[in-house]
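NQO2 dehydrogenase
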Amino acid sequence: FPLFWFSMPAILKGWMDRVLVQGFAYDLSKSYDGGLLQDKLSLFSFTTGGTKEMYSEGGIGGDIRYVLWPMQHGIMHFCGVKVLEPHICYAPENVSVEKRKEMLSVWTQRLKTLWKEEPIDCSPEWYFK
């Protein structure tokens, strides 16, 4: 998805609001590591309008991990889902055709080994270190 206003597009958020409901995705007594979707994996793959430097520590947009906290931790991890390292293509509209092809090649290679990846620990330390 494209990163919109430091979040996911409204249509994706709306889908999550309708699907990840209490009783199916979580229960207040069963959340985070005990959530109802413990056997699931998630991966956020998205593009940004800004460069990697803009979303780095000290960058104008702040560290991208801060942006990911509510989506990965607050939604997916809350439901018990294990979260893989995000796949981010920074500012694809502002790079050369060759660089965009490289982005696609890297994504293609990652998809071949995705099921072998270990989830991030999803702790505040991972996001705010």
